[in-house]
Specification:
By secondary structure, this protein is of the alpha+beta class. Helix content is 29%, strand content 21%. The protein has 2 domains: 118 residues, DNA primase, PRIM domain; 158 residues, Alpha-Beta Plaits. The strands form 5 sheets. A 5-stranded mixed beta sheet has the order 11-12-10-14-13.
Length: 309
């Protein structure tokens, strides 16, 4: 699919009719990147992105007027969604009123492009999926450490902390996979530990790792969410390990000045970024990510396989 400059284009995608609108709209003014280019990117990245999106309740971060305009998070499937958009009702874990959210599920190319056409720049998903006979929300299949650089630090310091997290997880016989946040930081994923992981067990281990590293590296690491404690340090946000929380999906574009992407990287690349002290080594835009996937495949493929098993 090539970006189309027309204001509205009807197209057939795997047997589904989509009316793609305002493809000429510039979403990233600094680079001129358009909505058409966004839709094109998601069409081309779909083979590797969909396994990480599929059956995970979607939260869309929409920017109808581009990254410099107002945005909003949309959890509920829009009323105008096509009938073929799959969805799941998830009880609210934060409300005593019994409210629920009707999330869209993105498991195929038509649904992915439908969401992109809504100016959904960012795709956010939880650490659980709705396959099989799981209750909703289901037990976790991933653990995540969101490494957020405080004032005076960059992704370079996040690389240093990420390697420490990986070493700590290895002591628990857990493999780990890093990806850029696509914004400022780094995220480290691991399979949820144990044959029958629970949210309590995952959250407990994540907290233990964060506190342990804060204790051993007090000048580098902080595990407390208070912003006043972050200057010159990297926050290990272990609290993301909660059924109601979401993390940006791998391969999602981010709403930054440029169309950067949350990109899976190798641990060798993390070490190289740390050694070079150059944050640009882990900053990737859409075209670069497509080239990386063509050359190297999906560096998060094993993590998706662990969740499916």
């Amino acid at each position: 699919m090539s970006p189309d400059r027309a204001s509205s284009v009807a197209t057939n995608v795997e047997g589904r009719t989509l009316n793609l609108t305002r493809l000429e709209k510039v979403l990233f003014p600094e680079t001129g990147f358009t909505k058409g280019e966004l839709v094109d990117y998601y069409a081309r990245i779909a083979p590797v992105m969909l396994p990480h999106l599929c059956d995970r309740p979607l939260t869309m971060k929409r920017y109808p007027d581009g990254v410099e305009g107002q945005f909003f998070f949309e959890k509920n499937r829009p009323r105008h969604a096509p009938e073929w958009v799959r969805h799941v009702v998830v009880p609210s874990t934060r409300s005593k009123s019994g409210d629920s959210v009707d999330h869209a599920l993105v498991c195929d190319l038509p649904t992915l492009l439908w969401a992109a056409n809504l100016a959904t720049i960012e795709f956010h998903v939880p650490l659980w999926h709705v396959r099989g006979n799981h209750r909703v929300p289901a037990p976790p299949d991933h653990m995540v450490f969101d490494l957020d650089p405080g004032e005076g630090t960059t992704v370079v310091e996040c690389c240093q902390v990420g390697l420490l997290v990986a070493d700590a997880l290895e002591e628990h016989d857990l493999p780990s996979w890093p990806k850029t946040s696509g914004s400022k930081g780094l995220q480290v994923y691991a399979p949820a530990p144990g044959p029958r992981p629970t949210w309590e067990s995952v959250r407990k281990l994540a907290h233990e790792v964060a506190v342990r590293l804060e204790t051993s590296e007090p000048e580098l690491v902080v595990s407390n969410m208070r912003r006043g404690l972050r200057a010159g340090k990297v926050l290990i946000d272990w609290s993301q390990n909660h059924p109601a929380k979401t993390t940006v999906c791998v391969y999602s574009v981010r709403a930054r000045a440029e169309p950067t992407v949350s990109t899976p990287v190798s641990w060798d690349e993390v070490r190289q970024c740390l050694d070079a002290g150059d944050p640009a080594r882990l900053r990737f835009q859409t075209a670069e990510v497509l080239d990386r996937v063509e050359e190297r495949g999906d560096l998060f493929e094993a993590l998706a396989g662990a969740a499916a098993s």
